[in-house]
């Protein structure tokens, strides 16, 4: 797993490395400079002129160090200072003095940067926590107008490290060289779109730098997912792989039930039963004859529904269900009677938004899978407000209602009460198509059915879903990718993830 840190956490680890582990700050700055220089050297030959934009903080010192090391390697280097060096941090001033001994050309004239081929952005880094001044905005705009290849040091200047927000204007970087760990601002938009290709380099700040603190934000990798997947046993039958109850699909919305139910099967579930309106019987039993079908018409027999709830090992409710009295009745029965994990998606979330206290009735584990619009309804909060503090808002929501929350977006955020927060960035914009979310909900249900914990399924499901989408886009292209294409790639993804097992 990759560790994801906030600006405050990174600053504390930096200080701990210096004060507790005894590594001088200048040593860390030298290592940062060398890491940036290595990335430049590996990509560009000595014919390229390097312009270093050196801010007054330690990020500027990193840029000076990188420029000096590149100068030593034979590159033509220019150090640009938008402010007087006497206002810079102690380490940056020291780096400047060293650079002057090497007689590296320094300037305060931005016009000289036009002769450079590559720019190193050391203007602000992760320390930025305020709106930019008009002067800073004009400076960044001028940098972007030069249309050079830009390498950001740690994070593109103008991005808030804790939420990915623009602080007024942002340096558009082709490459970001970060240190020690990924930062939250690298993964959340718009920061992710400005960071582009992010390389994380070790400079001596490690988990030993945490002291007595624990970092709870992570990004799963392929090997983590493989390790979490439950193994299938030779001596087994369908009962060993769980029973999934899918309550989905109002009239005209059979597709949502189909995508959810089949995705649960494709994840390995032993048996899936669909509860849907009677009008969907023919199409669902035709499309998915492997599933059991139970239809209801204008009213519900609560005893029959309670029997279905008791039958299940995991319940998914909401895809295509519509918001109507019968749907609300089904949701209330699930929340009050279920003793197995319950996944609420789509219209189940829309109904919860009208009566969020329904969640307090539940006596089982719950996973909610909202997209940003549904999250806005749940929280009675604008999307813009959520984006300002997405991680903290979602973590608080999970704690308040004791639910795992899978907030679907270009970067999907998975928050688990008082435990780990996961960032999932795999996938493709071609997945933005009707039915994609139904597939994810079904995949999570299937993972729980085969024996994965709710917390792990909430994290692993989006990873596998994103991978399936990427596989699909490779076949169809982004514009033509449909939910059925995503679902068709689930077997290939699972075989790839578990290629060392006997499952494929």
Quick tags:
504 residues; alpha/beta; elongated
Low-confidence stretches: none
> Termini, distance in Å?
25 Å
Which descriptor suits the 3D outline?
A: elongated
Overall pLDDT score = 96
State the share of residues found in helices, binned by percent.
40-55%
**Numbering strands along the chain, what is their spatial order in the largest sheet?**
8-1-10-19-18-17-16-15-14-11-12-13
Number of helices: 20
What profile does the largest beta sheet have? 12 strands, mixed
Q: Percent of residues in beta strands?
A: 15-25%
Gyration radius over CA: 26 Å
SSE-based structural type: alpha/beta
Total strands:
19
Please give the oligomerization state of what you see. Answer: single chain
Summarize this, please?
This protein has 504 residues and is an alpha/beta fold. It has helices spanning 7-19, 25-43, 58-72, 90-101, 134-145, 184-187, 191-195, 222-228, 254-266, 281-287, 302-311, 325-337, 347-354, 372-379, 383-388, 390-401, 436-449, 454-476, 483-488, 490-497, and strands spanning 2-5, 49-54, 76-80, 105-107, 118-122, 149-153, 175-179, 182-183, 197-201, 217-219, 243-247, 271-277, 292-296, 314-317, 342-345, 366-369, 404-407, 412-415, 421-424. It is elongated and about 85 Å long.
């Amino acid at each position: 797993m990759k560790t994801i840190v906030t600006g405050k956490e990174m600053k504390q680890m930096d200080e701990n490395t210096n004060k507790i582990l005894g590594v001088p700050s200048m040593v860390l700055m030298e290592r940062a400079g060398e890491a940036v220089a290595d990335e430049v050297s590996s990509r560009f030959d000595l014919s390229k002129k390097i312009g270093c934009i050196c801010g007054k903080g330690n990020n500027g010192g990193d840029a000076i160090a990188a420029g000096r090391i590149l100068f030593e390697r034979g590159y033509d280097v220019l150090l640009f200072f938008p402010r007087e060096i006497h206002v810079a941090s102690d380490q940056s001033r020291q780096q400047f003095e060293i650079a002057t001994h090497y007689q590296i050309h320094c300037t305060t004239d931005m016009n000289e940067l036009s002769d450079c081929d590559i720019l190193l952005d050391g203007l602000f880094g992760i320390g930025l926590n305020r709106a930019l001044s008009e002067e800073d905005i004009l400076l960044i705009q001028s940098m972007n107008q030069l249309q050079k290849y830009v390498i950001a040091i740690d994070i593109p200047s103008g991005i808030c490290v804790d939420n990915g927000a623009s602080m007024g204007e942002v340096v558009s970087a082709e490459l970001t060289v970060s240190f020690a760990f990924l930062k939250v601002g690298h993964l959340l938009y718009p920061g992710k779109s400005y960071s582009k290709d992010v390389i994380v380099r070790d400079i001596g700040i490690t988990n030993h730098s945490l002291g007595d603190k624990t970092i709870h934000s992570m990004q799963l990798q392929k090997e983590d997912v493989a390790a979490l997947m439950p193994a299938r046993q030779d001596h087994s039958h369908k009962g060993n792989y769980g029973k999934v109850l899918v309550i989905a699909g109002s009239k005209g919305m059979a597709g949502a039930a189909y995508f959810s139910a089949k995705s649960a099967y494709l994840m390995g579930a032993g048996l899936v039963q669909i509860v849907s309106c009677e009008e969907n019987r023919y199409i669902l039993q035709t499309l998915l004859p492997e599933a059991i079908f139970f239809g209801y018409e204008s009213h519900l027999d609560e005893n029959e529904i309670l029997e279905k709830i008791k039958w299940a090992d995991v319940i998914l409710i909401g895809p295509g269900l519509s918001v109507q009295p019968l749907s609300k009745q089904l949701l209330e029965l699930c929340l009050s009677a279920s003793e197995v994990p319950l996944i609420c998606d789509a219209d189940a979330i829309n109904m919860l938004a009208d009566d969020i206290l329904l969640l307090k009735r539940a006596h089982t584990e719950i996973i909610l899978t909202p997209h940003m619009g549904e999250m806005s309804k749940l929280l009675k909060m604008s999307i813009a407000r959520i984006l300002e503090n997405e991680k903290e808002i979602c973590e608080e929501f999970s704690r308040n209602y004791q639910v795992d929350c899978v907030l679907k977006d270009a970067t999907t955020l998975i928050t688990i009460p008082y435990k780990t927060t996961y960032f999932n960035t795999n996938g493709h914009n071609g997945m933005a198509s009707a039915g994609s979310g139904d597939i994810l909900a079904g995949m999570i249900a299937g993972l729980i059915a085969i024996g994965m914990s709710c917390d792990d399924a909430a994290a692993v499901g989006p990873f596998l879903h994103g991978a399936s989408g990427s596989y699909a886009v490779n076949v169809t292209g982004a514009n033509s990718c449909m939910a059925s294409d995503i679902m068709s790639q689930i077997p290939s993804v699972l075989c790839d993830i578990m290629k060392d097992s006997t499952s494929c």
